[in-house]
Amino acid sequence: MILREILKASYETIVAVNGREAVDMAAIHQPDLILMDILMPEMDGLQATRLIRHNPGTISIPMLTVTARVSFKDKEKVRQSGSNDFLAKPFTYEQLIDRIERLLNPHGDSQTKKPSYLSLVYSAGTNKMKKKA
């Protein structure tokens, strides 16, 4: 399943295909949440996350990093980059939506409106989720 197709039913999405584009698009579009992959061409997701966090205009945008790397060292790198949370691949639709909603509604306020933009940043191999068993 393609992430953008799945998420566009609930969120308006914009897509960057590499980290450099993600940094630029975050500044221009000011998304309500960024879904960031680590392994991407031109600039990896960790560097892109650090740059987004150093920009005063994008510093507070919640970020969810998706990665196939789940060692303690990798998790620590994600945390140190400034990402709010991570989700190990493969993941289910339900896991993804749960993480997104937690980041968008950190106090559990169900009255919070849906975001205007959910920015997806992923490499070619990241745009698929596992099917629910």
Describe this structure in words.
The protein is of the alpha/beta class and 133 residues long. Helices cover 36% and strands 17% of the residues. The chain has 5 helices and 5 strands, in the order αβαβαβαβαβ. α2 (19-29) packs parallel to α3 (45-54). The longest helix is centred in the C-terminal third of the chain and has 12 residues, at 93-104. The chain is globular and about 30 Å long.
Spatial arrangement of strands, main beta sheet:
1-5-2-3-4
Q: Distance N terminus to C terminus?
A: 14 Å
Assign the structural class, choosing from mainly alpha, mainly beta, alpha/beta, alpha+beta, or little secondary structure: alpha/beta
Structure summary, number of beta strands: 5
Q: What profile does the largest beta sheet have?
A: 5 strands, parallel
SS field, number of helical segments: 5
Radius of gyration: 14 Å
Could you list some keywords that capture this structure?
36% helix; 17% strand; 5 helices; 5-stranded parallel sheet; 5 strands
Briefly, what is this?
Helix content is 36%, strand content 17%. With 133 residues, the chain is α/β, with parallel strands linked by helices.
SSE layout:
Layout: H1 3-7, E1 13-16, H2 19-29, E2 33-37, H3 45-54, E3 63-67, H4 72-81, E4 85-88, H5 93-104, E5 118-121
Parallel strand pairs: 1-5, 2-3, 2-5, 3-4
